[in-house]
Amino acid sequence: MSVLARNNVIVKGQRAARAIVFAHGFGCDQNMWRFVAPAFESEFTTVLFDHVGAGRSDLSAYSREKYSTLQGYADDVIEIGHALNLKNAVFVGHSASAMIGAISSLKDPDMFESLVMVGPSPRYINDGDYIGGFTASQIEELLDFLDNNHLGWYAAMAPTIMGNPDKPELVEELTNSFCRTDPQIAKHFARTIFTADNRAELARVTARSLVLQCSDDAIAPDVVGEYVHQKLSNSTFVKMRASGHCPNLSAPAETIAAIRDFV
Predict the structure, then answer these.
(1) Among this protein's residues, is 95 annotated catalytic?
(2) Catalytic one among 57, 94, 95, 114?
(3) Are strands 19-23 and 89-94 parallel, antiparallel or unpaired?
(4) What domains can you pick out in the chain, each with its CATH number?
(5) Dihedral of the alpha carbons of 196, 214, 233, 224, in degrees to the nearest 10
(6) What pLDDT is attached to residue 180?
(7) What residue ranges of the chain have pLDDT lower than 50?
(8) Angle made by CA atoms 193, 196, 199, in degrees to the nearest 5
(9) Catalytic residue among 29, 50, 76, 217
(10) Catalytic status, residue 245
(11) pTM higher than 0.90 for the full model?
């Protein structure tokens, strides 16, 4: 199977223009960008894809060893970029994919000229003076809950992740997206994300970067977004009016405007 088929890559927009790549987070797929990506089709070649294990990707390509770190996902991004001959592109990564984009930019600096990080976190676990938002025991409890009752975890965590209690339809959509994911893959991906430590990579990133920080984000709080901004050598920090962890769904117009101002 080709790389493009493996990751269900969809290319739209102006084929001769600069490219912008949209990458989804945990428990989601490229459909989560449906309110944002079309706004850029008149100016860019837009590239959407599903991480292996998500959406309509090739589930047979999933390897617990390869995807035990975010490096494995970054390797896939580089393969996709090479298949599409991407140069000086923009990478827009939501949640876990924000750091996947950062790692990808280190692997091939010519591929991505700019990074847009939506709700990024290089490490979710508090460590000394570093505040990631969770203690080690809290993360282990979350992962144990997911291991023992994935449907219950989805129902409990979707409202926390999405925020926006006045938009129950978005919580329902996120819950349903979680439920469509293979539970064993979801459990492994969650452990990969929530136990990762990619702080060291931030200082090495040279691509110009935009950090989009939502208000009242229970997954990646303000202090984390500010840390990412401080560690990146060439970054812009934008505190959004949007609340929760998924502004691509809850506040697409604000998300589009922030990205457009940057690129």
Answers:
(1) yes
(2) 95
(3) parallel
(4) 3-262 (3.40.50.1820)
(5) -40
(6) 86
(7) none
(8) 125
(9) 217
(10) yes
(11) yes
